[in-house]
Each structure stands twice: as structure tokens, then as C-alpha cells.
Amino acid sequence: MKKPAFRISTGASLLSVAVLLVSASGVRAAPPLPVEQLTGGHTVKTAPADRIYVMDAVFFHLTDSRLNQFDRSTGKFLGMIPTSFNGHAQLSKDGKQVYVATTYFERVTRGERTDVVEVWDNDKLSFMREIKIPPKRAGALNYDGMFRQTGDGRFVLVQNATPAASVSVIDMKNSTFVDEITSTAGCWSIIPLPGTPRSFSTICGDGALLSITLGDDGKVASQKRSEPMFPVKDDPIFITPGRLSDGLVFVSFYGNVYTARLQKDGAMKFAPVWSLLDESDRAKRWVPGGYNLLAVEPRSERLYIFMHPDGVEGSHKNPAAEIWVYDLKTRKRVARVPGKDALSMSVVQGKKPQLLTIDGANVNIYDISNPEPKLVRTITGAAESALQVMGYAGGGNG
Predict the structure, then answer these.
(1) Number of domains making up the chain
(2) Residue 40 scores a pLDDT above 60
(3) Residue 9 placed within a domain
(4) Is the residue at 382 inside a domain?
């Protein structure tokens, strides 16, 4: 029986997951994962910093999501951690543990709901403990801003939607739920602020950023709302920014760049807006597209972003025709390479930084030591349908 072809949804609901298997040529069939002898609780000898983590939502059997791990230098499959219904995952600051935010229903797909943050041993791939949280976490795609942690790793933050937006705060030191922040109503996505131990921002419906700082008890110590950063109707932004050492870089659906930096008084300072596009690009209607579609390598201050031509209203989730690279200091494009239909990316920092991209099934690894990314390895069949690929951030994955 012929599999149905799907169109990309313009909505942000789980119905839009069909885009993961779509390329310009039609439906992408993910090869099966390598067969491994897994016995539950085996030890992974590869160091956390040398692994790739693929959050596989497996959208056609969503109650069975999992975090797949691979050796970054060889592409070998190392094992997986089950993440239950539409799970989200991140690494602890020291890389020794994996945090999972997930949901359980009493009868798998119905019945009483329980939301938890689980802690897993990252070497043994074994369950350690869980922390029960309010059953409000957003049933969202694996955008980076749905499940984060503070810069010092003390608190984990979960995006809620009932549909009113709020943020759950979990104390990882004491393994306790601390508080639900309701002042984020009307705002969306959790963005830890670089260079701060316990501050994060969220994007509000009027184009402003709400910045919140937590105290030692995990409660809100202070908060400040900025002036609107972008015009919501005329130039909406993607919710996942790139992170500089001292600021955030956002890109709009139409290719405009907004940069925000936190000041000592808690206020946000915005740099002048500039465009990724020149006249030739606009003539061919090049626009950004994807999910976690941009990243910044903070040492070089280079921005990486997925782009596609012939952009139209609703094409902001289209896969990448190309990856464009910009020097943020000069605001000039310094490279462009084939995008391989990628949908999400992340940067792994280090002496030899790498760019990771995923098209829903396959991971591409690029050396980004130089301005032009160089493809060094492809891991085929890394997932069935994934929107998030990560490396260990060395204590800075907040």
C-alpha cells in the first residue's frame, strides 16, 4: 500500500509533524536503526562530550518517544533512553545525567495524567528518580525553548500550556517541584540568558521580552518587561534564538535579525535591526525555514541558518535548501552550502566546533572551524521522526 504524502502545516500543533518526512521530492522513508544488543542499564563508555543526542518524537506512535545516542566520531549507535509520551530531554551541566520531561496516562492514551521530570544516568542509561510536576506541560514539538535549565544548572524549567502559558520550576538539587510562574501568561518559550546563573527571558505577544530572575529558593526574585523588540504582525520572529556569550540573536520569518543584550539593571538593550538578504536574494524570495533553524558559534560569532527560495506565507517551516553563514561582527554572509533538507540544528562548541543538523531521520555533522561548513559524517537512520539534535554543551547548555 502506498504511503500517503503530507503537506507542511502552517500551525504549530502536533499535526505539523508530517513535514519531518517530506522533502522536495516527496516522502522520506527513514532507514531502520542499527541493531544493538541492549540489556537495560548497560554502560556507555564514550564520554558525554563525544556523543550526539537525537530526541526522536516518533510521531506515528507518539507514546513511544526516545532519546537516541550516537558516537560523534564514528556514528555508532550507543543506546537509547525511553521518554514516553512526546518526551523532551536535556543534559545536566556536567553531562552525567539526562533530564526528561514527559507525560504518562493511566491507560497509555487516556485516563489520569501524570507529568514528571525524570533523571537518568547518562553512562548506564538507567533510571534514577522522578519529580512529579503539575500536569500542565505543553504538548509541543521539540523546540529548544520548551524544556531548559538555568545557567547554573540548579533549576529546570518546563513550558506549560493549559492553554494559558506558565513555567514550572523544579529544584534539581533537592528533587522537588518549587513553583509555577504565572506571570509569563501571554508569553512563550524559555530562553536562559547567557552569562547569568538564574535568569531567563520569554517572548511576549506584543513583541516584548519578559526577563525573570530566580532567587535561591527558585521563586521569582525580579522580573522586567522590555519595550517591543519586533512588530508582531509585520515581522514575526522564530522562537528559538542563537546564543552569543552576552546576548541573543533572533531572526524573523522575512530574514531580519534582532539582537538583544541584558543590561545590569535587568533591562534589555536592542541593537539596530539588519537583514540577511540582499536585493538578489529578495528577487528569488529567499527566506528562513525550519524548527530549531538557527544557531550561533559564540567564539567566532558566526550565525548559521536554514534558508529556502520561493518563500511564501506559511513556508516558514520548509526544510533547508541551503545553510547560510554570517559573520555577526560585519553582518556579512561568509558561506552558503547545501542544506540537505534539514529542519533543525545545534552547535557543539570546542577547539574544533561542529554543526549538527537533522532532516527528521538523518544527522549531518559539519566541521565549522572555518567559515564554510565542511561535511565530515552522516548518520543515516538516526531517528524515525526527530526535530532536535544536540551535543554536550560543556556546562553551557542552558
Answers:
(1) 1
(2) no
(3) no
(4) yes
